[in-house]
Amino acid sequence: MAQLVALHHEKAGFSQAYLKKMAVTNFGAGHETLASTLTSILAMISARAAVQKQMREEIASWTRTRTRTRTRALVYTRAAIKEAMRLFPVMGMSLPRVTPAGGMRVHGRCFAQGTIVGCNPVALQRSPDVFGRDAGCYRPERWLHGGQSPETARAMERYMLVWGGGARMCPGRPLAELVVHKVVTGLVERFKIDVDLPGDECQPSYFLSVMTGAKARFWAIESR
């Protein structure tokens, strides 16, 4: 924030209005999204003892390897995290795009050029047409090898809009994924987590899709 203020004073083109927009973007895109993502991931994992147990066993088997290698090798853990992000993508609004010159035709419907169109990540990532009849259920196994046909697996990856899509995909994705995996694996490795979920996990939202009302308790695991 101090650097943004200094830049505002040093450069005439960096107006106060732009300063405010940049500050909001930094806090919103860099802080709120990450906090909301971690909340939903830990809630989904902690509400299912079998998932938490399997993750902890997988993490324990890699405790003597390098951190970077360990994170990449945690297949089930990564699937559990990905499944929570599928059900609770932090962006709850449609991601707007403008149709190209000449317009476009999608599933039998025509859109004139210049039309603003969008797709809601929450609705898409809970679609039974893409993720199966249990699309509304938390099931990490759907992301594991052999859990789906190759065609279905490719479709699921294609329709995941957690990080946006195309040329406007979130530029902070690599850093955010690193933070999420480090935090989640570290907490599951060191604590047994109990959680009370809100009565309605899927709550109405527009801009940010945030899970609220979850109460967690962390019990330290004694090192052996």
Question: What structural class should be given to the helix and strand makeup?
Answer: mainly alpha
- The backbone outline, from C-alpha atoms, is globular
- Give me the strand/helix succession: HHHHHEEEEHHHHEE
Order of strands in the sheet with the most strands? 1-4
Briefly note the CATH topology name of one domain: Cytochrome p450
Q: Helicity, in percent?
A: 40-55%
For the largest beta-sheet, the strand count, sense and barrel status come to: 2 strands, antiparallel
What does this structure look like?
The protein has 224 residues and is mostly helical. The chain has a domain at 2-92 and 160-220: Orthogonal Bundle (Cytochrome p450). Helix content is 48%, strand content 10%. It is built from 9 helices and 6 strands, in the order H-H-H-H-H-E-E-E-E-H-H-H-H-E-E. Strands 1-4 form a two-stranded antiparallel ribbon. Strands 2-3 form a two-stranded antiparallel ribbon. Strand 2 (104-106) and strand 3 (109-111) form a beta hairpin. It is globular, with a radius of gyration of 20 Å. The protein starts with a helix and ends with a strand.
